[in-house]
Task: structure prediction
Amino acid sequence: MEAQAGILNKMQELMAKMPQVFNAPKAGDVVEGLVVKKSARTIYFDLGIWGMGIVYGIEFTNAQSIVKKLKVGDAISVKIVEIENEEGLRELSLAEAQSQKSWDLIKELKRTNKVFSTKILSVNRGGLMVEISGVTGFLPVSQLSNEHYPRVEGGDKNKILEELSKFINQDFSVRVLDFNAKENKLIVSEKAAEEEHFKQALGKHQVGDVVAGAISGIVDWGAFIKWPSGDDTLEGLIHISELGWQLIENPADFVKVGDAVSAKIIDIANDRISLSLKQLKPDPWKIASAFIEKGMVVEGLVKKYNPFGAFVEVAYPSSGNDENEALQGLCHISEFGSDEKMKKILAVGQKYQFKILAFVPEEHRMSLGLLTNS
Result:
């Protein structure tokens, strides 16, 4: 019995040392091959104990980019297409082996959430095209980092494309966001690649902090500010409603790229930082409450129309100096009966006499009525 057990153990050891003997490759398997002969239409491979293999015909044509680089003596992965043809050779595919190897790499990059570098090949209106081990991927504009996100006033698509084109041939650090080998789909994200690093830098700040930086971009809905945070640089958005206490129609009229500003962090959510310029200044509505009250007759400058009426700027004396500050009130369209009549009576840029119908500084609200003899 002991002798039989010893033989069995030796057999198991032998099998462990030579697993390939008991696991012959089948169609679809990828194995290593050594180039032994190359002609204008055929390549022969030595597959070791599995004999000889050949790449020819359509498989040779499909692998031209690989074939051009191969020379006798090179070792490369090949995929078995047919176990044995009429000549006793295993028919192989270079292109399918490369593709499978590439998708295996992509799968591993996704599994490990690894950050890696890829080159920008081309751009379109939706984003940038990249390449990973021979597989073409897509980097959507929405997945660009704050540094590379195209901030174009008015959202002009041609200008956005122009900004994206500057990145061609540059290397970006990205992570695999999603992939589907069967559909040949690969999506990568630069934003995700910076996520962990960004969170660490973000952890140094909290709501209420005041940061000093510079305006880095302007869009229709606000302005971006960048500021140093230790060894890092962070960026956040100042919404148009937080640029100033007054009515601001175009952020570009209020700040310029490069302007040095201080801003207060008012929210940190979903890895986004929201900031405010106006909250570092006194609330003019509170100051104005010492000078303005319901029932007063004031002079107002018509600033713009909206569906509810006309916005009117009303000046009041600033505290401690001779200059005037201004608040915006609404002269409701019901005062005129229709939008057409309102625009005939009130002209943008002109001053009129108004009566304050309501003044609620806590809600930043003032209602005005046009005096008939105005």
User: Anything to note?
Assistant: The first helix runs from residue 2 to 17. The CA atoms of residues 78 and 123 lie 33 Å apart. The longest strand covers residues 171-180.
